[in-house]
């Protein structure tokens, strides 16, 4: 009788992950700082990806895999958004800021019996005032709006709230021309 031989299974090698190794692990603190500043200045994912030599999808994947990177990008995007929001609010409501006015002033003076024109810069500190911008105010109200006592947005919205089936109020316009000549 022949004894069957049993072959021992070879230990399996660890499989390598499919695809290229992540560039995220190779980012140094200087690159992280650059990414942070870019988000604070309003750069979008595509622009940041181009600087890092990766795709926009890679940036998205890094956010999904790294909680700290996700938190950092959200926080720094909010910095840029807050700056824009503040600037838009100031534009809508009017604002003032200090400024310096520079002006070239020329004088005629007598030097050695001859009249000569000499000039100099004079500086004046002042406060510039900008009035409210009605278009910016309208956009602000339309997007932010006000809310009535029941929590519903008031009249500034373009679209009526979902489920509002009330027909629009018709508008009657009449024009009367009394004379077309002067």
What is the strand and helix layout of this fold?
Elements: H1 29-40, H2 45-52, H3 56-65, H4 67-93, E1 95-111, E2 114-130, H5 134-143
Description:
The chain is an alpha+beta fold and 182 residues long. It is built from 5 helices and 2 strands. The model has no long low-confidence stretch (mean pLDDT 80). It has a two-stranded antiparallel sheet. Helix 2 packs across helix 3 (56-65). The chain has helices at 29-40, 45-52, 56-65, 67-93, 134-143; strands at residues 95-111, 114-130. The protein has a domain at 24-94 and 131-143. 2% of the residues are buried.
Approximate shape:
flat
Biggest pleated sheet? 2 strands, antiparallel
Name the assembly state: single chain
Order of secondary-structure elements: HHHHEEH
Put the structure in a nutshell.
The chain is of the alpha+beta class and about 180 residues long.
């Amino acid at each position: 009788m022949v004894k069957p031989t049993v072959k021992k299974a070879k230990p399996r090698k660890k499989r390598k992950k499919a695809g290229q190794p992540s560039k995220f692990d190779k980012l140094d603190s200087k690159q992280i700082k650059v990414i942070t500043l870019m988000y604070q200045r309003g750069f979008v994912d595509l622009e940041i990806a181009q600087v890092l030599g990766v795709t926009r999808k890679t940036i998205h994947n890094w956010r999904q895999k790294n909680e700290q990177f996700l938190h950092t990008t959200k926080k720094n995007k909010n910095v840029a958004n807050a700056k824009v929001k503040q600037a838009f609010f100031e534009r809508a409501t009017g604002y003032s800021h200090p400024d310096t006015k520079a002006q070239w002033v020329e004088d005629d003076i007598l030097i050695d019996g001859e009249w000569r024109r000499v000039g100099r810069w004079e500086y004046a500190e002042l406060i510039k005032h900008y009035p409210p911008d009605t278009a910016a105010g309208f956009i602000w109200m339309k997007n932010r709006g006000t809310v009535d006592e029941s929590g519903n947005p008031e009249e500034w919205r373009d679209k009526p709230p979902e489920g509002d089936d009330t027909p629009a109020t018709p508008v009657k316009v009449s024009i009367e021309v009394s004379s077309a000549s002067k």
